[in-house]
Amino acid sequence: MPDTSATHYVAPIKDGTIAVDAVKVAEKPSNLWRDAWADIRRRPMFWISVIIVLIILLMAVWPTLFTQTPPNSNCQLSSSNGGPSAGHPLGFTFQGCDIFARTVWGARTSVSVGLLATAIGSTIGLIMGSLAGFYGGWLDGVLSRIGDIFFSIPYILAAVVVMSVFSQFRNVFTLALAIGGFAWASTARVVRAEVLRVRQADFVMASRALGKSRFGTMIGHVIPNAIAPLLVVTTLSLAGAIVAEATLSFLGVGLGSDTMSWGNDISQAQGSLRVAPMALIYPSIALTVTVLAFIMLGELVRDALDPRARARR
Question: What is the annotated localization of this protein (predicted)?
Fold first, then answer.
């Protein structure tokens, strides 16, 4: 029989105690995207990048909102290399075209090539990386070696070859296909690494245990949870694709000379650099600001989606 005569002392509970482990039921549970948004929206550089990107996209979609001057039909040789004047704040090109109008309208072509090339490269990279990372085995080996081959080829050099061979088809889609078709390998590597991490999660095993097919599990559970790094890579790839279009057009193997783009404007202005440098400087500034805005946005999104980076700040 246990000794029940022993006295047990319990510390008295004082008034005013607080429940340190209380849970606020009204608050929404935290997740990666909510934490990332809470972090990134407090950073001024994020809003600066977003505003610049929105202005560039608005110029590409609706250029007449910024200028009513036709970029080509109103060219006058009498105004060749002329300076700023009423209605023409940036002056004129060698052909007597309005520099401001051409810079505004050039955003449509440059951004279109960048978006289309990024969409092509990201789609190929997502498919190749997801299949290689999720299924593994011989399929991973084959797809990884294909990716290594494309990764070892500079995509600008490959695009030069493609556009030189198919010079009669020099348009936005062909150029975007030439860029995106060779720039997907880095995206595939990032996606593969993230899929390898996600496929070990408990919810993936639970999905398979409930009878869902491997392909269905990959589409419904693995890829949605591995999409965060792809978002960062896509933003940075967009900046690279815009630069690639300008580089190829400057070299004369990109878009046709009759197509308005920042690369073509820079290429055409190099002959009159000494007498009219503004014709080259303004498209270059537009290109530089656009690329920097997308790069800054990608860097900020990457830091916001990385919990370790948030903890270090």
Answer: Cell membrane
